[in-house]
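Could someone model 2'-O-acetyl adenosine-5-diphosphoribose with this protein?
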Amino acid sequence: MFERHLEEAAEVLAGARRVAVLTGAGISAESGVPTFRGKDGLWRKCKAESLATPEAFERDPALVWEWYDWRRSLIAPVEPNAGHRVLAGWEGLFGDFAVITQNVDGLHAKAGSRDIVELHGNIWKLRCTREGTVEEIRDTPLPRIPPICPSCGSLFRPHIVWFGESLDPVVLDRAYRISETCQVMFVIGTSSVVQPAATLPLAASRAGAKIIEVNIEPTPLTPQADYFFPGKAGEVLPALDRRLREKRPAAGIDRLPDRRS
Ligand code: OAD
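Reply:
Sure, complex below.
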């Protein structure tokens, strides 16, 4: 069954020109980055509302920054895994290919993906609370906690979307456009419970895209998915990649024109 579905999904993929991917914490789990929900999830150990909200930052910016600096120190030495690498390799295979991620760890970029929509921000970026300017600072531990904007002396905050905040409308708009125009959408390693990200595959499906889900367990999206691969992203994606590349010459994917050019 699994093998037959892999073959079918590779066939669907081989015939597609516009492919989108939505990823969540599960794709980075095999690299050693903790997920949010589930047995060892971050939200089991820390209270989201005491750390990842504007109110928490207002109350105690140093505490919030210590938590983010701890997460930065966990992620800093981490390498992308086979799942990230397959997605980076697919970027050259299709006319349009974009990764929409809920992850803030920067691992898709580290693996070599270039067209990445970061829905929830990026843990390596800091944003001035007064001027709104964004700077990438990779030092961890940070030299000063809480960090201060060098140009105006105001507090920097993590460039991350907190609970109770809206996503950047420009970023969200692009994510919807990609979802509504793709022919195939992969949904990888997300519990599909956080909005608005969880709506993107539904929008893609409504617009006619095939939905291929990869997760170690079923999610609320699974009943709507055309294919569900129960397994680790770092194992399922390379298996699919092998089959896709066998079909590639016949499908002639690399001869298709790039819609962006
Ligand atoms: P979750 O922690 O909610 O879900 C991770 C998902 O990955 C689960 O469905 C797991 O079953 C699955 N999973 C774990 N290991 C896997 C593996 N090796 N291969 C495939 N799947 C695997 O993470 P997200 O859905 O990303 O937001 O959470 C969404 C948002 O909630 C996060 O971006 C974060 C959080 O609050 C912010 O911080 C703004």
